Amino acid sequence: MKTEAATRDGRWLVLGVLALAILLRIQAWAPFDISHADELMQYLEQANRLATGHGLLPWESRAGVRNSLIPQILSMPLWLGHRLAPGTLAGMYLARATFLTLTLVALPAAWRLGTFVSRRHAIVALFVVAAWWESVFFSELLLSESLASAVLLLAASLLLDSSASRRMLLAGGFLAGFGVLVRLQYAPFAAVLVLNALWRSPERWRPVVAGGLGAAILGAASDMVAGKVPYAWIFINFSKNIVEGKAAGFGTSPAWQYFVEYYLHFGAAALLFVLICAAAAGRRYWPLLLAAAVNVAVHSLIAHKEYRFVWVSTLVILVVAAVGSQNLADGILTRRYPRLRESMAAVLLVTAVWGLLSISSFRVTGGYQAFRGGGAIPKLAVKAAQDPHVCRLAVVDEFYAHVVPAQLPRPVPLSVTPKGVYDRTAPLPPDLARAANALIASERPLGTEAYRRVACLAMPQERACLYVRHGPCSSAPYYDFQTALERSGM
């Protein structure tokens, strides 16, 4: 009877954790805020371009340094939104929601990895991926790292399963390959997982390799549909970012930068707790920790560093630490309260500790607002587009990365002001003032006396305002958004 009751309690607890995962992501939903410009330029805008036939082309798309998998996936909900509700933001919302849903594969991945020990460990691992604030945060970001990390975690849960069937190994090989297609730089992480699976059981190589070949065929088909030579983007990426040093142009950091980033993103107490718990997970999880360490080491050798580049390592460490925390709790309970060891009450206690630590880390680090923002700018752009009299919208240079056509309810030509307009050291060029009858800036720029301020929205460090003038729009090709991107090499 106790076993049946515990099973029922466990089921309700799992359902509660899944509901919590969804509620936290709804609460954190901020489709206009971004953490990186790639979310808009590389993915949402390219998907919109596939769905509508027009849009901006940043330097990565012009040079062909990435494949088109994510834009192709997101183009479907964008196309559907445009067809079902033209003149609205339905397509953009559907695309964002679709991507967030795809990242939720990290939840069953965490569960499976926890079941390597027990259902109790699985519930704690599931809870950590569902509720840890950065797990919620990254699921909201439209980045290749977010999707690839979730997919590779699921691949790991299959490849590291000693009882995995041939079909599961086939799926694991496919997911590992797909994760690398989504984020090429995670290839070292995937390689450690695959090599470990094959090293321990050489007879597994057939289904794993077959699954990987399936992903490779999908990648080649994606390239051909995009009109590209299959996998040419890999060589172009290496040439541009490594040989020519294009990526380093966006900033460089010392080799130890990721250790600093972990401190900034966790806080001292949370980071120490996670590392101690990860060490207590046991030998079964060493391959995962090795893959995470290799990924951090490889990225530490690259001059240009961003925390998102090692998110797959962070996600893995969180899951392994979740398992280790239950191990530590089991050890304590076995010595002092042996009857509680197998109970759901012990699991609830461990998840409560994780929940409190997540809240503490959120507050210490600043949470979502410290790592994303700018939503005021596209919201004002939407307001401008909803005015039928607005025929061209200009955005000051410092705000341009926050607005793309994919975010607008109707096609509105976009222009970018030259430098100096934002900080009022130069006036708005007269030909641009004639070309655009709407402008988004902070304080009123010089030379905009004909514009009236319509609305302002606050941001953490400043505010963004929409200015509109009466009258038609003319042409000013020099300031067109696409021209400005090409002129700046962006």
TrEMBL record:
Task: List the GO molecular function terms.
Answer: mannosyltransferase activity
Instruction: Enumerate the UniProt keywords alphabetically.
Output: Endoplasmic reticulum, Glycosyltransferase, Membrane, Transferase, Transmembrane, Transmembrane helix
Gene Ontology CC entries for this record:
endomembrane system
Membrane topology, as annotated: Multi-pass membrane protein
Give the main localization category.
membrane
Q: Which InterPro entries match?
A: GPI_mannosylTrfase
Locations listed in the record: Endomembrane system; Endoplasmic reticulum membrane
Residue spans crossing the bilayer? 84-107, 119-135, 172-199, 262-280, 285-303, 309-333, 345-362
Q: Under what name is this protein listed?
A: Alg9 family protein mannosyltransferase
The organism encoding this protein is Novosphingobium malaysiense
